[in-house]
Structure prediction request, 226 residues.
Amino acid sequence: MKTRVLIFCAAAAALPGAVMAQAGVGDTVTMQVRYTANVGVGEHVGFHKDGIGPSTIKHMTANMAGDEENVGLMQLDLSAYPGYSVSSAVLSAFHDANRVPGAVFGIFRNTSPWRDVTTDWDSRPTYDPTPVSTVTLPDAATGVFYSFDIQPLLQGWMDGSIPNYGMTFRRIDDPNPVAFFVSGGDLAGERMPNVVFTISAVPEPGSVLMLLAGLATLAAIRRRGK
Prediction:
């Protein structure tokens, strides 16, 4: 039996209209990761089932038996930032439990979609094997955030040079992540993964209008094709 993926909305992003009106050069934006999931190998389905109630905290990675691999999935809603440029972008993930000093975790760019597509380990998204960013857990501390530099990835999503299929979050040096990293849940609060980025340039109004016009044209072509 394969573990089914748990997909849920962790937090809504800011309203697109408000962001478009307010964002300017030098502005720093904090955004909680909107879509997260966990998918893994093995028969430990019960461990990953989505709980409902005030004591629930969900995880992107968990401690599974043996060498059974499991990974987290994340995706940002960047629809409010078409064509923007960013000078920095840092993703922070909260290490909730299990002490694993020396463990190496990485962020990988997904190369295929997973939302509304992934249902188990075999249908998880493909990803670029070269990590965008890595972090080595330095000691036995838990209950702390670790930061990953994802500026090149965020920039590619914003300017449209790469499709936004989100990220795979996984341990690199061992198939079993062991460490619990929070994805969301009723009690997660500020422990949910978040991205902080700084805008270095804002697209010209004409560029935005051209982009929106192009998207409208593509939508019309698809409708005619159907």
Observations:
- The helical segments are 16-22, 45-48, 151-159, 205-225.
- The first strand starts at residue 6 and ends at 9.
